[in-house]
Design brief:
Layout: H1 3-17, H2 22-33, H3 36-59, H4 61-70, H5 72-91, H6 108-117, H7 120-135, H8 146-177, H9 182-205
Length: 207
């Protein structure tokens, strides 16, 4: 019976990871510009970040929910930052002097973790998810047995990295079928970020 919690964690995490977010876009971008192995490094630590956020949401669910609903500016700031980053990539002009271009190499593991953990909307998602889970016949809290919590958070981790792995595989297929340089990749990434930003604004003022 306790194995059910593994599948609940897996399903809930996968459902939350399917919509395009910062980690997804980083995986897509890295696969297109570099390779799937580098992208998977992002997925590994993004999965760890997902576990941390889901644990924190379980620990402070009502406090987190009240804080974000009382401070709408945080959600607006997230949308504005996404819009700015997307616009920068979309309208960035390609440098003509390739010899003077400098690339800043950052750890993929660090990138995955930071993008995963600095993601307030995911906290809200997990607060809602735990509300739904605990309103069903199942009950999950930090007072649950160690085996139940271990299975659930293992499912959360697997759901996150498998979903990101899926995005990487799809990006790899696209990469093999079309030959596009960094400029085209940046434009695609920019469009995705702008799209997420508009979705965030729609959630705030329409839905």
């Amino acid at each position: 019976m306790t194995l059910v919690y593994l599948f609940i964690g897996l399903f809930t995490s996968t459902l939350g990871a399917l919509p395009l977010g910062a980690s997804n876009i980083a995986v897509i971008n890295t696969t297109l510009k570099e390779n799937a192995n580098q992208a998977f490094k992002i997925a590994i630590t993004a999965g760890i970040a997902e576990v941390i956020l889901s644990y924190y949401a379980l620990y402070n669910s009502q406090t987190i929910k009240d804080y974000f609903y009382d401070n709408e500016w945080i959600q607006i700031l997230i949308a504005v930052l996404l819009l700015a980053a997307g616009s920068l990539l979309l309208f960035k002009r390609k440098s003509k002097n390739y010899s003077q271009e400098k690339t800043v190499k950052t750890s993929k593991y660090a990138t995955g973790f930071l993008l995963g953990v600095l993601n307030p909307p995911v906290l809200i998602y997990w607060v809602i998810a735990f509300g739904i889970i605990n309103n069903s016949l199942l009950l999950l809290s930090l007072k649950s047995s160690v085996s139940i919590l271990f299975l659930f958070f293992s499912g959360v981790y697997l759901g996150k990295i498998l979903t990101l792995y899926g995005y990487s595989k799809i990006s790899g297929i696209v990469k093999r079928k079309i030959s596009s340089g960094n400029s085209a990749t940046n434009k695609v990434t920019g469009i995705l970020l702008i799209g997420i930003s508009f979705i965030q604004f729609l959630k705030l003022y329409i839905f």
